[in-house]
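Cast an eye over this sequence plus tokens and explain the fold to me:
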Amino acid sequence: MNNPATHVEAQEMLAAVALDATTNAEREAVLAHVVVCGECTRELGALRDAAESMAQLAPQTPMDPARQARVRRHLMARAAERAQPTTTAAAGAPSLKVTMQPGRRAAFSRFTTTRVSAAAAIVVLGVALGLYGVSASERADAARRDNQRLIAAQRGFEREIAARDSAIADRQALLDAMTGPGVQVIEAGATNARQPMAKMFWDQPTDQWTFVAHNLPHPAPNRTYQLWLITRAQRKISAGVFATNASGDALVIAHYALARDALAAIAVTDEPAGGSPQPTSTPVLVGAAR
């Protein structure tokens, strides 16, 4: 364009100029009109502000300039191809000839360029909004992952608290079973070099038996210790088998209902692995009930 655009032509081209989607000649022609037209000046300023705001929606990382140029060339080429006539005159039909008046610019060419520029602007806007949507989606995914990690950490803390509360409850239950008002304590001992000793805590209201031993020598291979409740009627009731730790200590907890005045004594014997139906050896520990 060598001459200024008319007001109508400038109005058609303002959006394309604001998006920098015109040729140099088209841009010069429109700007030549804008400098003398207050209405077009205001409208071009508003369109440029809108284009700048639209650009701010894009992600912080810009597209590679070479790739951006290739995309723009491709879009412009595709739009130009679509602007070319695609129909073929039927045989024998009269052909249409367009005659341009001397000194008059080709409005058809300008409007075709306008359509190309508008199409390019729409595509650029779509790409910008699409990239912004991807960025927003990634931020949402990151927020969801952070939320899932927080939930997992919270559940871990809840499990730790539950385990701690359970351990405290177990210790409290053991303490109650050994110090409660209905607990009878039976002491058992022996006279040898290691001085083994033990205590049985019989919680009569709950029928729980808590046996604690110290300094017991380790049994021989394929042997085990077995705890017995001996009644006044000389019944020998097994309360379970047990092993000792490296220090010779042991803890046995059993439940067995027995009349309060039925217990005569407790005893520990050395038995074959797995235990015996009745004692088969001399007790290593014996304690008489009060």
About this structure: Helices lie at 7-18, 24-34, 38-56, 65-83, 107-179. Residues 183-288 form a domain with the Immunoglobulin-like fold (CATH 2.60.40). The two ends are 121 Å apart (CA to CA).
